[in-house]
Amino acid sequence: MAACAKCHARIDPYGFALEQFDTVGRQRSDPVDTATTLFNGTRIEGLEGLRSYLTEQRRDDFVRQFCRKLLGYALGREIQLSDESLLTDMQDILEARDFRFSAAVEAIVTSHPFRKIRGRESIPE
Question: How far from 26 is each of 18, 87, 90, 111, 121, CA to CA, in Å?
Fold first, then answer.
């Protein structure tokens, strides 16, 4: 279907780059062609090519989306406009602390929105 092809043209190349792994993440025993061209024309090959692309060309986008998803999960709701400053702070903290996962978790659990989640008793300072 044409409606499906529009989205698949954007997302499929990322999957093709990961074809060396099976459905549960094990490396396939037979060699697989993982060379692909992303929607923007960038050529990548395999996990290393995808990693390089995401860390060198799309790092800010990747980190922002990581922060959005982790914060939304922690808060148990969608991200709101009022959360934007926390997202920016999280990105800054991650960069300052060498993108350690623990830095993102600490930024969330010490944040006002997390500490004041409705339905929970207030956590003492």
Answer: 11, 33, 32, 37, 43
